[in-house]
Amino acid sequence: MEATLHALVVLLIQSVPTILFFILLTLYLRATFFRPIARILAERKQATEGVREIARRAFEAADKKTSEFEHALRIARAELHHEHETLRQKWTQEQTETIDRARAEAAGQIEEAKRQIALEAERAQADLDARIGQLGEQIVNSLLRRRAA
User: Fold this and answer.
1) Could you write out the DSSP letters of every residue in 17-86?
2) What is the Cα–Cα distance from 141 to 147, expressed in whole angstroms?
């Protein structure tokens, strides 16, 4: 057992330079490789988070602008609808006034035509009355001539 223990101590003494080399290599790698990589990864994470924050703010601003635009669009549509409705009412009123004027004018023309027809009827009646007198005299004269003959 003493031989085994002695062999173990010899192995331990022989491995001391390897252990020291391993410790120095670990410290060296930590200083020259892992810390810069960790620093680069931290900077990259900060940059990524910064870009994400900027993107989030841009998205919020775009969303706000979109809602403002939609609101303005709704207002413009309402105003346009109101203007169209006002214009339609104006056209309807103008059309009604035009129709009323046409009806009044037609009624006036009808009254004038009735008056003219009544005048013509009176003239025709007067003419007939005058002719009746003449025809009556002709008939009487004709009958008297027949009796006298």
Assistant:
1) HHHHHHHHHHHHHIIIIIHHHHHHHHHHHHHHHHHHHHHHHHHHHHHHHHHHHHHHHHHHHHHHHHHHHH
2) 10
Q: Band the pLDDT of 140: cuts 50, 70, 90.
A: confident
| Token pair listed for 148 | 């006298």
CA distances from 7 to 3, 10, 20, 81, 109 (A): 6, 5, 20, 102, 142
pTM for the model: 0.45
34 vs 129: CA distance, rounded Å:
138
Name the one residue in this structure whose structure tokens are 């056209």: 91
